[in-house]
Amino acid sequence: MKAFLLSLLLVPALVLAQAPVIEISGANFRPLPLAAPAPVVQEGADKKSAQSFDAAFTYDLTASGIFQVLDRAGFTADAKEGMTAGSINFSRWADVGAESLVKVSLAQDGGALRGELRLFSVATGKEELKVSKDAPAGEPRQLAHALADALYRHFTREPSPFLSRITYVRKAGANRDVYVADWDGMGAQALTKGGTHILPTLSPSGQVAFTSYRKNRPDIYVQTPGGEAKPLVTDGQMATGIAYSPDGKRIAYALAEGESAQIYVAAADGSGAKAITDTPYGLNTSPTWSPDGKRIAFVSNRGGSPQVYVMNADGSGVKRLTFQGNYNQTPDWSPRGDLIAFTARDERNAFDLFTVNVDTGKVTRLTQDQGNNEEPTFSPNGRLIMFSSNRNGAAHLWVMTSDGNNQVPLPMEKGNWLTPDWGTAPAAK
């Protein structure tokens, strides 16, 4: 399995102030050894908030795929060491293999929880980043995601996925309910309660669209968290697999009628729907948009077995993309534009995850010999893939880098969690 290269490059002084930049590309993977001691709790902040902050902050860094977060059990530095360079014994951090040291202090002022993050180069002892963020006192995880995002941006010069949202389905008995949550699955909010609701997707505006059987037939509904579900597509025998265009102005979905299913494109409110495939007795499903909104990848059995195809957004220029295997499904187009992740059934009848390069057709396997792994969805920056896996029993949500490395479960409670969809990056503030 291919890994990706992480190299530290010195940027000229007039550009980015000599900060090391993590360039993620290539074939040799070396994460940055990072020491992140527990946050310092200052005036007003309580231990419970600090623990919640610490869990979220550490998970963000660990799951990011670019840091090797060092085990605190091996730290030899004084636990009472300060937050400034002059108070830090950097040789102690070098002894445990750290190349960078990140320290955080937490303080509460009224209804606000404030976090201050300082990043140091262990080799030079210089402070490379100092940033402060605020969050409501009852939202320490929100503060953790914000500070982790600042650290990620410092090293990569691109947004992290830590401030984004996801949606997914929880299976409990005969019920399938839709949830929306923070990127790590925490802070979850149920949108439905009881019944069968499947295949949710997040719109760029934060609405969730999903297929629901609330009227004893599969129609597509849209719902704002905290609001009521409204019908969006009620045509045909079955409407499913909705996907929003990157600008949020259009939707694509599959509509079954008789013995066929076709891909339709419509305005985001469902108006002006038009079929862009036409294969009598054929099944066309699971549309996913290219990041520029000009193309759509989808699944079709027009060649005899379910395979991934690509076409222009008006239905022209259809091209088959996958040729290996006889059951390929659930494509998701990377926001970076180069890869499409998909689920495939292998020769052992197990489901695993793969990517296919849109330009070259090269297929790369991401998971193997770890139960069933399904429904991949890319992070907003295209660096991570979330998926559902039953490798430890019941289906759980996992995340990994886009080349299949650093596979870690989301820190959610036990349950059957299915069909995740990762929302777009939040607007810059």
Structure description:
Keywords: Periplasm, Signal. The protein is mostly beta strands. It has 2 domains: 32-156, Rossmann fold, CATH 3.40.50.10070; 165-423, Neuraminidase, CATH 2.120.10.30. Helices cover 9% and strands 43% of the residues. The protein has helices at 47-63, 90-95, 140-156, and strands at residues 5-10, 20-25, 32-35, 40-41, 67-69, 100-109, 112-121, 127-136, 165-172, 175-182, 189-190, 197-202, 208-212, 219-223, 230-233, 238-244, 250-257, 260-267, 274-275, 284-289, 295-300, 307-312, 319-320, 328-333, 339-345, 351-357, 363-365, 373-378, 384-389, 396-401, 408-409, 416-422. The strands form 8 sheets. Strands 3, 4, 5, 6, 7 and 8 form a 6-stranded mixed beta sheet that branches. A 4-stranded antiparallel beta sheet has the order 11-10-9-32, with no helix packed on it. A hairpin with a 6-residue loop joins strand 29 (384-389) and strand 30. The relative contact order is 0.10.
Radius of gyration: 23 Å
Spans of at least 5 consecutive residues whose pLDDT stays below 50 are: 1-18
Largest sheet: 6 strands, mixed
Strand content: 35-45%
Helix content: under 10%
Number of domains: 2
CATH homologous superfamily label of the largest domain: TolB, C-terminal domain
CATH structural architecture of the largest domain: 6 Propeller
Total beta strand runs: 32
CATH fold annotation of the largest domain = Neuraminidase
CATH class of the largest domain: Mainly Beta
Principal-axis shape equals elongated
> What is the residue-mean pLDDT, rounded to a whole number?
92
